[in-house]
Amino acid sequence: MKRTTLFDSGYQWIVFGRDPNKAENLIDTNQYMIRTANRCLLLDPGGTELFAPMLAAALHYAPVEEITDLFASHQDPDIISSLGLWDQALPEAKLHAPAIWEGFLRHFGCNRIEYVPIEDAGGTIDLGSMELELIPAHYLHSSGNFNVYDPRSKILMSGDIGAAIESHDAPMFVEDFSEHVEKMRYFHQRWMPSNRAKNDWIKRVRKLDVEMLAPQHGRIFKGDDVERFLDWFEALSVGGAVQV
Amino acid sequence: MKTNTERKKSQFVSVASIATELSDVMVVAKEISLAAANAKAIAYRAGEKARGFQPITDFINELARETIGLVNQINEQASELYETTVSEHRHEEANRQFKAVLELGSDAAYVDSLFPIAGRIEDELGEKRHQLKSQVDRLLDQLSEIMHPARAARVIAANSRIEASQAGEFLQSLLTVAESVDKAAELMYTNVQRCRSSMAMMEL
Ligand SMILES: [Fe+2]
Ligand SMILES: [Fe+2]
Q1: What value does the mean pLDDT of chain B take?
Q2: Any domain includes A144
Q3: How far is B157 from chain A (nearest CA, A)?
Q4: Cα–Cα distance for residue pair B52/B16, rounded to 1 Å
Q5: CB–CB of A84 and B101 under 8 A?
Q6: pTM above the 0.90 mark?
Q7: Is residue A208 part of a domain?
Q8: What is the pLDDT of residue B160?
Q9: Closest chain B residue by Cα to residue A89
Q10: How far, in Å, from the CA of A76 to the mean position of ligand 1?
Q11: Do B117 and A55 touch (CB under 8 A)?
Q12: Domain range for residue A28?
């Protein structure tokens, strides 16, 4: 699993992905880790198939007992079907996840980990030495869905928003935005159901100072590409499977 | 040798098939109980001629009741066993995954921190396996216990035939009763036998 440090100043943001051993027919995912002095948060830690490579990669940065928090942006299997295994590995940890998905996510196995429900309006994750904001991103694509914003590093972990279907050896960052657009278009048109939800999210995100927009699939948008993405997404009509 | 997945699959099927076989046994036990009630009514009408038949009908009824009770117990244990099978399967999967982490992360700075957890998971798997084995053994015991009423019912059916021969014009009806008890008992016997052989496959 490739490991890339996105931010390193007092604490770290690390992205894991592009697993060369991943089965062909599984969608490639990016997993994120925030490492503070004595605690770690894993964001969208991934599917069951990814558990072993993901935990092995995390152990390069922290002992298992310092992985204290998990975050699941929504209920999809590629996000968190590994929960039952994390439940074995991190019996003291907390899972921050949308309140409406609690009864569903528990089907993956969540007996020891504490489920901390995120209400629709959002909230925060307190890691002791730092605090993260939970930005509502409902219906993009999941009906209960959140982004994580870190005001210090200015990284917005955007879940499936900004996702692109890429080959497993693609670079971690967007290099040519106009070329990248075609890898995102179908996914956003087909998976995102609501233009209203999309516009609400764009409005929220425009109020934030975002240096990096980091999705769960594909490449990370940096600097001006963040604004380019917001403009592109704003102009895109979604909910494409229903012809009116 | 069977692969692990194949073995697991056949375990799940075994436990699930017990429930099916047992619900058939239950139907049969109820049939026997009905046959006993029939026999009682006929014996009552036959009066003196069927005197020897009366205690037999009570006995048949008793056997049917005992069988139903045992089936209920076995059903309960079979569903416990099913839960253990699922849980053992989960533990096995977790154990496999944690072994993979240790291998993939062998060069990771903090790989040692996983040793106690991996050890705990291995221990728990051992416990689960042990629990599964003792539950299988207990269920096998109960399945052999339920063979007793089935065997007894067949003996009674044979006795009933002898008694029926004394019953004059009621001969035919009483023979029918004896016949149905015999058939039911035989069915029960085969069902339980099938249960036992599919269970025996589960033995680790
Ligand atoms: Fe998703
Ligand atoms: Fe996804």
Answers
A1: 83
A2: yes
A3: 51
A4: 43
A5: no
A6: no
A7: yes
A8: 78
A9: B117
A10: 5
A11: no
A12: 2-235
